[in-house]
Amino acid sequence: MNAPVKLNAHLWARHPDDWYVEPEWVSERLFAVERFRGTVLDPACGTGRIVRAAQMAGLHAWGEDIVVRSPDCARVSNFLIERVGANNVISNPPFKHAEAFVTRALEVAMDKVAMLLPSAWVHGDERSRWLESTPLRRVLFITPRPSMPPGPVIEAGIKAGGGTSDFAWFIWHQNFDGKPELGWSRRKP
């Protein structure tokens, strides 16, 4: 594994696979505020936190990734090109491939897609127009800001500090036609 490289007191070097680890509470709160039925696939499962939170919520969940980093990842898989299927696709995708992950998830999920992304991901004329063409149902802003360091930081046992970036769960419902709702996913309800 690559050792984490600290750039200064608050920044880490970018991970080459865009692998960043969300705090466990972020996924646990998603399942507390949004109802999912059936199976859950996390195609960028990293340390498996989303998979475990889905299982704790009583769902049949499994993870896949381009590199197996956890026993919660069932197999090595490139979600963007391999044939998969699930009722729901829920993930903290590599940010540089977020739009491709959303597009692919909407192709394979039978019910819902939930992606953990920087809140600013919605900005930009082209992306905003694309989002309007999708069945985006809800955006849940996460508070307080979660700290999401690169995976090697967590593997090294370094405690993540306070977050400085805004994140949200973007949730699509297949066949939804309307304007998305805005809400919050709070660490303490």
What does this 3D model show about the protein?
The model has no long low-confidence stretch (mean pLDDT 86). The chain has helices spanning 24-33, 49-56, 98-108, 125-132, 151-155, and strands at residues 39-42, 60-65, 73-76, 86-91, 109-118, 136-143, 167-173, 181-186. It is 22% helix and 27% strand. It has 5 helices and 8 strands; from the N terminus they run αβαβββαβαβαββ. The termini are far apart. It has 189 residues and is of the alpha/beta class. It comes from Alsobacter sp. KACC 23698.
In short:
22% of the residues lie in helices and 27% in strands. With 189 residues, it is α/β, with parallel strands linked by helices.
Protein topology:
Layout: H1 24-33, E1 39-42, H2 49-56, E2 60-65, E3 73-76, E4 86-91, H3 98-108, E5 109-118, H4 125-132, E6 136-143, H5 151-155, E7 167-173, E8 181-186
Parallel strand pairs: 1-2, 1-4, 2-3, 4-5, 6-8
Antiparallel strand pairs: 5-7, 6-7
Helix pairs in contact: 1-2
Organism: Alsobacter sp. KACC 23698
InterPro entries: SAM-dependent_MTases_sf (IPR029063)
Protein name: Methyltransferase
CATH architectural grouping: 3-Layer(aba) Sandwich
CATH homologous superfamily assignment: Vaccinia Virus protein VP39
Q: Rough shape?
A: globular
Terminal Cα separation, in Å? 37 Å
Average residue-wise pLDDT: 86
Protein name: Methyltransferase
